[in-house]
Write a structure and sequence with these properties.
The structure holds two protein chains of two kinds. By secondary structure, chain A is an alpha+beta fold. Chain A is built from 22 helices and 23 strands. In chain A, strands 2, 3, 4, 5, 10, 18 and 19 form a seven-stranded mixed sheet that branches. Chain A has a five-stranded antiparallel sheet with strand order 12-11-23-22-21. Chain A has a three-stranded antiparallel sheet with strand order 1-8-9. Chain A is elongated, with a radius of gyration of 37 Å. Chain B has a three-stranded antiparallel sheet, with helices on one face. The longest helix of chain B is centred in the C-terminal third of the chain and has 34 residues, at 275-308. The chains are: A alpha+beta, B mainly alpha.
C-alpha cells in the first residue's frame, strides 16, 4: 500500500467532496424532474386521467325490459317469457375459437345448426358481445358445463328469458313470433332502446304491437375490474316492462274452428259484430312459432316453406278466394237498394242464362233449373240464374261501388300487419291492369262471386258483421286492451273505428235477413243441416270454382284431383235478433259450402253462444 | 495517514450525529436507520393496499425485511478494512458465478438468472451490485486520485465485463445498476469532465449500434415509451394504466385503499415494480413529494457519510452505494411515470420482493460500518 501524504489526502478529499456535492445536485435535479412530471400528470392533466380512470372502472350496461304478455279474452296465455339457459361465447376473450368450440362440443352437444347460427351472429355482433352457441340447455347440461367452466375462459352460461308460445300451432298465425334482430331491422329501430334486447317481433301481433310489447330499456352503471367482471352496481335505472295485451281472441273458439277444419286446409274468421273484435282468426295448417324464437334452422324452414300445404301462409288474412255464392246477399241488397228489383219479384230459371245474341251458356249449379225464382228463393236455393240476371240489370258500375261499401277490395285495416285487400274489379281496373274493356259476361259471373272478384276470409267476415249490424261498419281489431304490467287497473281499451253505410230503406235489410235465415231454416235451404233450435242463424253458403269447367264438361267431384276441387264457403251471423258473432269459413277444396263449411261455423257458434256443454 | 493498528478505540471523535449507547455499540447510524425504517413503514402501508389487503403478503414482506435488516446489522459490524481486503476476491468469485449462470443457470421468467446451490437459489448478479463498486473503489484507491488513463481503462473493463454478462442473461435492470455503481465510483474519483462528456458523446454516437444489439422486446419497450397509445392492450398497457393511476390521483389522491386502478386490477404489477403508481393514486402529489423527500434525505445522509469517510476506498464505496440507491429510485419512478422505458427495477425498499431488498440493506450496512468504524485522526 503506497504511502499517501497529508496534502494528497486533503487534495483527494477535496476532489471527492466537490464530486459528492455535484452528485447531490444531480440527485436533486433528477428528483425535481420526477416531481415536475408528477405535477404534469397529477395537476395539469388530472381531469383527463380522472376521466380515463372513471371510464376504466365504470361501465354502463343496458337492462333489457321484459316483453309484455299476450292473453286471449279469457286470460289464457298466448305468449309468455320463460327462463332458459344459453351457453354464450365472447369471441374477444377466446384465443382459439375453433378449438374452444370443438372442446365444448365434447361436453355439450352442438349441432351444425347451432354452429351456423353462431357464425352468422358473430359477423353481426361486436367482438366483445357474447354470442349464444347453444340455447335451451337442460339442467344436466348446465351442471355439466358448470363443473368444467374453468377450462373455458370467455364461455359462460347465461340465464335469459325466452319467448314461448304455449298455444303452439293454434295461435301461431295470430300472434306471430319474435326472432333475433337482423341487419335490416337494426337500421330501422332505435338501437339504444334495443341495446339489451336480442329479439324483435317478426310477424302477427308480436310485430304490429312491437312498440307496446317491448317496453323501455333501463340502464345500470356497474363497477368492473380489469377482467370485465362486475363487482357492484353503482347506479340503476330499472327497465319498464312492456305492456301486456289482451285480445278479443277466444282460444276455445279458435280450437273449435281448427278442430272443425280437421282434414282440410282453410280459414275461419269470427267477429263480434258489436265491437269489431276478432274472436277467431284461424288458418290451417299452422306451424310452431317456438321454432322461430332462436332462429329456425334452414332445414326446418325450407320444409315449412316448400310444403304444398303452405303452413306459413296466413289464409285468414292473406288468402284471396273467389267468394262464390256468399257474395249473393250483398248483390241482392244492391239490387233492392238501387231499386233494380223488388224482393218478391220472380223470374224464370231454366238452368242457364244467355246474354242476348251470344251462344255462351252461363250455367246454374242445378242443371234442371229452379223454376220461378224470387230473391228469397234465389237466396235459399242459391239460384245462379237469378243473380246473373240481377247482376246484368245492376251493371258493373253499380255493383262495384256497392260492394266497396262493405269493404271488398280494400284491406279491412285490422291491427295486424300483412293483410291483403282482395280484388274488387271495375271498368277502370280492367283497363288499367288488363288493358281491355269490361265485357258484359264478366258482370254476370261477378253476380255469383266468380271471375276477378277475390276476397279474404277476414273481409268476408267483416262484411257479414256489417250485414248483421245493419250497415254499421266497425274496423276489425285483435287487441281489446293494453294493460300496464305494474298496475292491474291501468289499462287502455282500444277504441273501435265505426262508420255507417247509407241505407235507402230499412225494409231491404229486413228482407235480406229473412232470406238468409231461410238459407238455414228453409225446407230447401242450402245450409238446412245446421239449423238450431236454440238460436236463429242467418247465413249463406258458397262454392267457389278453383278451375273453370269447359262448356261441354261436367264437374264431377269424385273424379277430380283434390287440389282442383271447389272451395267450400259459408258466412253467417247469430243470433239474428241480437247478433253476437259473425263468421266466415273457407274450406279449401272442401266441395260444397252447405255440407262442409257450414257445420264448422255451427260448431264455433254453438261453442260461443251455448258454451262448452252445448 | 491512517494507522490501521493504532489501539485508540476509546478516543472516538465526538460527533453531534453520533449517539452514545446501544446504537453506537451496534455500529448503527441513527439518521440513516430512521430514514430506512420510515421508508419501509410507508412501503408496508402501500403494499397493504396494493396487495388487496392481503395479510399473508405483508407477513412475507415483513420476514424479508427482518432478514434484510439482520444482514444490514451484520454488515455494519464488519470494519471496512476487511471489505477492502476481500474486494478483489469477491469480485473474482462473482465473475465466475456469473459465467456459471450463463452455462448452467436456471431459467425463470424467460431469463437465466438463478444459480441453484442445493440449499437455496442464488442470484450472482445481485452480489455484483456490491462487488463491482467495491472492486472499483479498491482498484482506484491503489493509486492517487484522480486516476490516470490506464487505470480508468482497466476500471472500465472491471465494470463492462460483469455488466455485459448480466445483460446477456438478460437482465437489463441489474446490468444498468451494476454499471452505474462502477461509473459513479469513477465519477466520484474525479475523472476529468472532458472524459465524462467524451464518454457521453460516444454513447450517443453508439446509440444506433446499441439499438441494433437490443433484443426485439427491449426495442419494443423503447418504442412503447415514445408512443404507448400505439399498442394500448399490448406493450403500452403498463405505461398507459400507470399514467392513468398517477394522473387520476391528483393533488391529494383518492385515499388509502381507495385506488381504483390498482384494486380493480387495471394496473399490472401493482405491488412490485409499479407500486409507485399506487402511492400516487391513493396519496396524490402530496404523498409523492413526502416519499421523495424521505428518499432524498437518505441519499443526502449517504453522501454525507461518504464525505466523512476516512480513506478513498470508503469514500468511493459509500458514494457509489448511495448513488446506486438513487439510480434504483430514478429508473423506477421514471419508468412508472412514462419518462423511461420499462426496465425491471423495483422501487427500493417499497416494492414487494426480497432479492434486491437484501442487497440494498447490505449496502446500507456497509455505509453504517464506514461511518461507525472511523478512527480518530492524528492532527
Amino acid at each position: 500500500m503506497p504511502q499517501i501524504s497529508i496534502k494528497d489526502y486533503l487534495f483527494e478529499s477535496r476532489i471527492f467532496f466537490t464530486r459528492a456535492v455535484i452528485a447531490a445536485i444531480i440527485v436533486f435535479v433528477a428528483l425535481s424532474i420526477i416531481i415536475a412530471r408528477m405535477v404534469n400528470l397529477q395537476i395539469t392533466s388530472h381531469e383527463h386521467y380522472r376521466t380515463l380512470s372513471q371510464d376504466n372502472r365504470v361501465k354502463t350496461e343496458p337492462l333489457p325490459p321484459t316483453r309484455g304478455l299476450i292473453h286471449d279474452s279469457h286470460g289464457n296465455l298466448l305468449a309468455q317469457n320463460l327462463p332458459a339457459f344459453s351457453l354464450e361465447v365472447t369471441p374477444e376473450k377466446v384465443k382459439d375459437l375453433e378449438a374452444t368450440l370443438s372442446e365444448i362440443a365434447k361436453i355439450i352437444p352442438i349441432s351444425d345448426h347451432d354452429r351456423q347460427r353462431f357464425m352468422r351472429l358473430k359477423k353481426q355482433r361486436r367482438r366483445f358481445d357474447s354470442i349464444p352457441i347453444r340455447v335451451r340447455l337442460n339442467e344436466k347440461e348446465v351442471a355439466l358445463f358448470a363443473i368444467n367452466q374453468h377450462h373455458f375462459p370467455g364461455v359462460d352460461i347465461k340465464a335469459i328469458l325466452l319467448r314461448d308460445y304455449p298455444q303452439g300451432e293454434a295461435a301461431a298465425h295470430v300472434i306471430g313470433y319474435v326472432g333475433r334482430i337482423n341487419q335490416r331491422e337494426t337500421e330501422r329501430i332505435d338501437l339504444s332502446e334495443y341495446s339489451g334486447t336480442r329479439h324483435i317481433g317478426k310477424n302477427g301481433i308480436e310485430k304490429s304491437y312491437e312498440v307496446q310489447l317491448h317496453g323501455k330499456v333501463g340502464v345500470q352503471q356497474v363497477e368492473v375490474n380489469a377482467k370485465g367482471r362486475v363487482l357492484r352496481v353503482l347506479e340503476s335505472q330499472p327497465p319498464t316492462p312492456g305492456y301486456n295485451l289482451r285480445l278479443f281472441l277466444d282460444m276455445d273458439l279458435q280450437r273449435e274452428a281448427l278442430a272443425g277444419l280437421e282434414g282440410y286446409n282453410g280459414a275461419v274468421v269470427a267477429i263480434d259484430p258489436k265491437t269489431g273484435g276478432i274472436l277467431v282468426l284461424a288458418s290451417k295448417p299452422g306451424f310452431d312459432a317456438n321454432l322461430f324464437v332462436d332462429g329456425i334452422s334452414s332445414k326446418q324452414y325450407n320444409k315449412l316453406r316448400d310444403s304444398l300445404e303452405k303452413p306459413l301462409f296466413n289464409r285468414a288474412l292473406r288468402g284471396q278466394y273467389p267468394p262464390g255464392s256468399t257474395i249473393k246477399p250483398f248483390i241482392g241488397l244492391a239490387g233492392l237498394e238501387r231499386n233494380v228489383v223488388k224482393f218478391a219479384q220472380e223470374i224464370p230459371c231454366f238452368g242457364f242464362y244467355q246474354l242476348p245474341g251470344q251462344e255462351h251458356k252461363y250455367r246454374d249449379w242445378k242443371k234442371r233449373g229452379h223454376g220461378q225464382v224470387s230473391m228469397k228463393k234465389a237466396m235459399i236455393e242459391s239460384c245462379d240464374v237469378y243473380y246473373y240476371s240481377l247482376a246484368r240489370a245492376l251493371g258493373i258500375d253499380r255493383i262495384e261501388p256497392f260492394l266497396g261499401l262493405f269493404g271488398f277490395g280494400t284491406p279491412t285495416g285490422i291491427d295486424i300487419t300483412g293483410e291483403l285487400g282482395g280484388l274488387l274489379p271495375s271498368r277502370a281496373w280492367k283497363r288499367e291492369h288488363r288493358n281491355e274493356p269490361w265485357y258484359p259476361g264478366e258482370t254476370l259471373i261477378l253476380g255469383i262471386g266468380q271471375g276477378y272478384l277475390l276476397t279474404t276470409p277476414l273481409q268476408l267476415a267483416s262484411a257479414t258483421a256489417t250485414l248483421a249490424m245493419r250497415g254499421k261498419r266497425i274496423t276489425p281489431r285483435m287487441v281489446k286492451s293494453i294493460e300496464s304490467p305494474n298496475d292491474q287497473h291501468g289499462y287502455i281499451s282500444t277504441e273501435p273505428v265505426v262508420s255507417q253505410l247509407p241505407i235507402e230503406q230499412e225494409q231491404h235489410w229486413d228482407d235480406m235477413t229473412e232470406a238468409m235465415i231461410q238459407v238455414i231454416e228453409g225446407l230447401h235451404g242450402t245450409a238446412r243441416r245446421i239449423r238450431s233450435k236454440r238460436y236463429r242463424i242467418a247465413g249463406k253458403t258458397g262454392t267457389a270454382q278453383v278451375f273453370t269447367v269447359a262448356q261441354e264438361e261436367e264437374y264431377d267431384e269424385d273424379t277430380i284431383d283434390k287440389r282442383m276441387r271447389d272451395h267450400a264457403l259459408f258466412i253467417a251471423y247469430a243470433p239474428v235478433d241480437d247478433p253476437q258473432i259473425a263468421i266466415a269459413v273457407i274450406v279449401e277444396n272442401g266441395g260444397h259450402g252447405g255440407s262442409v263449411a257450414a257445420p264448422i261455423a255451427k260448431r264455433v257458434m254453438d261453442r260461443y253462444l251455448l258454451g262448452a256443454g252445448k | 495517514m491512517i494507522s490501521t493498528s493504532s489501539p485508540i478505540n476509546e478516543l472516538r471523535r465526538s460527533d453531534p450525529g453520533r449517539q452514545q449507547g446501544l446504537l453506537t455499540g451496534l455500529h448503527l447510524d441513527l439518521p440513516l436507520l430512521t430514514g430506512l425504517i420510515l421508508l419501509c413503514g410507508v412501503g408496508l402501508m402501500i403494499l397493504y393496499s396494493a396487495g388487496d389487503q392481503d395479510i399473508a403478503l405483508i407477513k412475507r414482506q415483513l420476514i424479508r425485511l427482518a432478514i434484510a435488516f439482520s444482514v444490514m446489522l451484520v454488515m455494519a459490524q464488519i470494519p471496512p478494512i476487511h471489505l477492502r481486503r476481500w474486494s478483489p476476491w469477491l469480485f473474482g468469485i462473482g465473475l465466475m458465478m456469473l459465467a456459471a449462470v450463463l452455462v448452467i443457470g436456471e431459467v425463470g421468467k424467460g431469463a437465466q438468472r438463478w444459480l441453484n446451490l442445493g440449499l437455496f437459489r442464488f442470484q450472482p448478479s445481485e452480489m455484483m451490485k456490491l462487488a463491482v463498486p467495491m472492486m472499483v473503489a479498491w482498484y482506484l484507491a491503489e493509486a492517487r486520485l484522480p486516476p490516470d488513463k490506464k487505470r480508468i481503462a482497466i476500471t472500465a473493463i472491471f465494470i463492462l465485463l460483469p455488466t455485459l454478462m448480466i445483460a446477456k442473461q438478460p437482465d437489463l435492470g441489474t446490468a444498468l445498476l451494476v454499471a452505474s455503481a462502477g461509473i459513479f465510483a469513477l465519477f466520484l474519483a474525479g475523472i476529468r469532465w472532458r472524459l465524462i462528456f467524451g464518454f457521453a458523446t460516444l454513447m450517443a454516437a453508439l446509440g444506433p449500434l446499441i439499438w441494433y444489439l437490443m433484443r426485439p422486446y427491449q426495442q419494443q419497450r423503447v418504442l412503447t415509451l415514445l408512443d404507448p397509445e400505439s399498442d394500448p392492450l399490448g406493450a403500452g398497457y403498463h405505461i398507459i394504466q400507470s399514467k392513468i393511476a398517477i394522473g387520476s390521483g391528483g393533488l391529494y389522491g383518492k385515499g388509502w385503499l381507495n385506488g381504483t386502478q390498482s384494486h380493480l386490477e387495471f394496473l399490472p404489477e401493482s405491488s412490485t415494480d409499479f407500486i409507485f403508481a399506487v402511492l400516487a393514486e391513493e396519496f396524490g402529489l402530496v404523498g409523492i413529494i413526502m416519499l421523495l423527500l424521505i428518499y432524498f434525505l437518505i441519499i443526502l445522509r449517504g453522501l454525507y457519510i461518504a464525505t466523512q469517510a476516512q480513506d478513498t476506498f470508503c469514500r468511493l464505496l459509500a458514494g457509489a452505494i448511495t448513488l446506486v440507491f438513487f439510480v434504483y429510485l430514478f429508473v423506477n419512478t421514471g419508468m412508472v411515470t412514462g419518462l423511461l422505458p420499462v426496465v425491471g427495477v423495483p422501487l427500493p425498499l417499497v416494492s414487494y420482493g426480497g432479492t434486491s431488498l437484501v442487497t440494498i440493506m447490505a449496502g446500507f450496512g456497509i455505509l453504517m460500518a464506514i461511518h461507525t468504524h472511523r478512527k480518530l485522526l492524528p492532527t
